[in-house]
C-alpha cells in the first residue's frame, strides 16, 4: 500500500536529515541575523536595480496601500481615497491583490495604518520591503523569477517570504525587511485528465496564484467541483492546501491536502521538481500536503483531484436570544445543535457556526448529494427545541442544482478577521461523551465577551489512500473551533493583553477538555505554547528533517512554521538565529 512504503521512506529521510542538519550548523553559525534595511550589508540601490534586471523588471518597491491616508512618506495623501479605503479595509479583496498588505493587522505593527491621523507616520516598517511579481506570461520566466528571487535572498542574506493572497493569520506572508516572492499573478487554470497509480480521472492544474473562487468557477464550467475553503479569496496552492484546508466539501471528499495529486515546486536551492507519491520526491509531497505553508519549497503549481458536480442542499439558521428569554433556554438550543454534529458529519454535511452572547448563527450549511428534506430532518431536534423556546429564529433550507448555486446562495461574505484569534480541534469523542464539559467551556469563553466559531468536519479517511502530513488529530475531530477576541485596529499595542488572555486563559480552557489534542495550523493562536506538537502532532520531527533536506540553508521561515524555533524576531523586527 502506498502509505506503508512511504512511511519507511520517511524514516530513512528522518535519519539522513538529522545528519545534514548538523553539517549545516558550521556554515550558518556566522550568520546571526538577516540583513535589515540600512545595515551595511543591505543591497545598494544599484544592486537592487541589477537584481531587478534578472527578474525582467518585475521588482516592486513597497508603497503601503494606506499611504493615501498620510502626509508622509510617500506624498500620496488623498482624503477621498483614504475614506474609500477605510470603507473597504475589512474586505479581503482590498489586500489580496497588493504586493505587501497583510490581512492580519497586528503584523503591520501600525506601519501605515489607515485609521490613524494623517499626520501620523506611514513607513514600510513591518511590511515586506520589496516583492518580485512572478509573472504568468511564460512558464520558463516564472520559474526563473522563483530561482532568481530565492538565490538573491540566500546570497545577500535577506529575509525571504512567499506571499500569495496575504490571508495568513500568523503574518507568515509578511515580514520586516523581507523580499517577497509574490505569486498572485500566476493564474493559469487547466482541467486535465490525470493518470497515476493512486488516481485516474479529472483534475485541476492550478498556478500558485489561483484563488478558491477562480478554481471553483473553472471547475463548475467543466461540470466539476474541487474542495476549497469557505472564503473564495483564499489561495489554493499556498497556505490553505499546504496547511490542510477545510471547506464546505471536506466532509464529503476530505481536506484540500487530501486531494493533492502533485506539487510543482522550486526548492530553496533552485531545483525545479514535481513532488508526487511513488517518486524520489514523495517525502516533499508528504510534507507539502498538510505540513504548513511557506516552509519546504516554493510552489509553482498544484494539481488537485476534481469530482463530478452534483446536487446540493443548502441552509442557514439564525437564533437571537432576546432579553425576555432565560440563558439556559438559549444554551439548551445551542447544545442541541452542537450535539447533532456527528449526525451531520456522517452524511458529509458542512456546518459553520458563530456564537456570541445571545446570538447563534449557523451559516452556511452545505450538504453534497442530499435533498433539502433530508437536510431539514437533521435539524428537527434543534428546530423542536426552538419552537418551544420563545426565541426569534430564522431557518432557511432549499435544493440547489450545483455547488456554485448553493455556495452563492448561502455563503455569507467573508471579511478579514476583526478579531485576535486562537483555535482548537474538538474530538468527536468529547461531543459524544462529555458534552457538559464542552458546553461549560463555551459558556466560559462567551462570558468573557469573546466569540467562538466552529466548522464541523468528518475527515477520518484519506480519500486517495496516500498518506500526507496533515496533523493526525484532524482525523478524529468533529469541529475546528476558533475563538475571536476584540481587535483594536487603531492601537496595535492594545492587542497584546488581549492576546495574552487568549494564550493563558481562553485557549487553555479548550485544551483542558481536549488533552493530547491539537489545533489547525492555519487558524490558531500565533503565541501557542508547544506549537510543534499542537499544530503538527507526531509528524513534527519528520517534517523538520524533510525541511532540512530541501531547505538546508533555512531560507524559508514563518512564525510557528516547522523549524521556526531556530529564529526569533527582535523588537525592531529583525529576524535572527537563536
Ligand atoms: C477571511 C479568511 C477566511 C478563511 N477561510 C478559511 C477556510 O474556509 N478554510 C481554511 O482551511 N482556511 C481558511 N482561512 C485560513 C487560510 O487557509 C490561511 O490564512 C492560509 O494561510 C491562506 O493561504 P494563502 O496562500 O491564501 O495566503 P498567504 O497569506 O499569502 O500565504 C500563507 C502561507 O502560505 C505560504 N505560501 C503562499 N504561497 C506559497 C507558495 N506558492 N509556495 C509555498 N508557500 C506559499 C506563505 O509563505 C505563508 O506562509 C481563512 C483565512 C481568512 C483570513
Ligand atoms: C557548507 O560549506 C561547505 C564548504 O564551504 C560547502 O561545501 C557546503 O555546500 C555548505 N553547505 C551548505 C548547506 O551551505
Ligand atoms: C524594476 O524595473 C522596472 C522596469 O524597468 C521598473 O518599472 C521598476 O520600477 C523597477 N523596480 C524597482 C524597485 O526599481
Ligand atoms: C518617513 O518620514 C519620517 C519623517 O516623517 C522620517 O523620519 C523617516 O526616515 C521616513 N522613513 C522612510 C522609510 O522613508
Ligand atoms: C464586514 O465589513 C464591512 C465593512 O467594514 C462591515 O460593514 C460589515 O459589517 C462586516 N461584516 C461582518 C460580518 O463583520
Ligand atoms: C504584476 O504583473 C502583472 C502581470 O503579470 C501585472 O498585471 C501587474 O500590474 C503587476 N503588478 C505590479 C504591482 O507590478
Ligand atoms: C448520492 O447518493 C446516492 C444515495 O442517496 C448514491 O447512490 C450516489 O452514489 C451518490 N452520488 C454521489 C456522486 O456521491
Ligand atoms: C415548529 O413549528 C412550526 C410551526 O408551528 C411547525 O411547522 C414545525 O413542524 C415545527 N418544527 C418542529 C421540528 O417541531
Ligand atoms: C440564508 O440564505 C438565504 C438564501 O440565500 C438568504 O436570503 C438569507 O439572507 C440567508 N440568511 C442568513 C442569516 O444568512
Ligand atoms: C465521513 O464519515 C463516514 C462515516 O463515518 C466515513 O465513512 C467517511 O469516510 C467520512 N468522510 C471522510 C471524508 O472522511
Ligand atoms: C495603546 O494601548 C496601550 C496598551 O493598552 C496604551 O498603553 C496606550 O496608551 C494606547 N495608546 C493610545 C494612543 O491610545
Ligand atoms: C468531563 O470533563 C470534565 C472536565 O474536563 C471532567 O472533570 C469530567 O470528569 C468529565 N466527565 C466525564 C464523564 O468524562
Ligand atoms: C513596531 O513599531 C514600533 C513603533 O513604531 C517600533 O519601535 C518597533 O521597532 C516596531 N517593531 C517591529 C517588530 O516592527
UniProtKB/TrEMBL annotation:
Stated name of the protein: Uu.00g091050.m01.CDS01
Similarity comment text for this entry: Belongs to the oxygen-dependent FAD-linked oxidoreductase family.
Matches recorded under InterPro entries: BBE, FAD-bd_PCMH, FAD-bd_PCMH-like_sf, FAD-bd_PCMH_sub2, FAD-linked_Oxidoreductases_BP, Oxid_FAD_bind_N
Keyword Secreted: no
Pfam families linked to this entry: BBE (PF08031), FAD_binding_4 (PF01565)
Residue ranges constituting the FAD-binding PCMH-type domain according to the UniProt record: 130-309
Keywords attached to this entry: Oxidoreductase, Signal
Signal peptide start-end: 1-21
A GO term, aspect molecular function: FAD binding
Keyword Ligase assigned: no
PROSITE patterns documented for this protein: FAD_PCMH
